[in-house]
Specification:
- The protein is mainly beta.
- 0% of the residues lie in helices and 23% in strands.
- It has strands at residues 2-6, 10-15, 23-25, 33-34.
- Strands 1, 2, 3 and 4 form a four-stranded antiparallel sheet that branches.
- Strand 1 and strand 2 form a beta hairpin.
Amino acid sequence: LKMEARDGRYLKFWWSANGTDWQPLQPAGNPDFDAQFVPQWGVAPRLGLSRSNAATDKGVFSDFGISYPK
């Protein structure tokens, strides 16, 4: 999972199964996710993915979802 932020509020996301070929994740066909409604400090949600294996193993996720009601 890869994320790019622009102008402090517009986010783009990509995913890759091999770490080389990146595919865009677009909310409802919109290339940018407007995160202006998310507080920048203090109570802003923080996202993390974790896996528990040997350091040389790759983590594989079959599903991932984020929901943040406005």
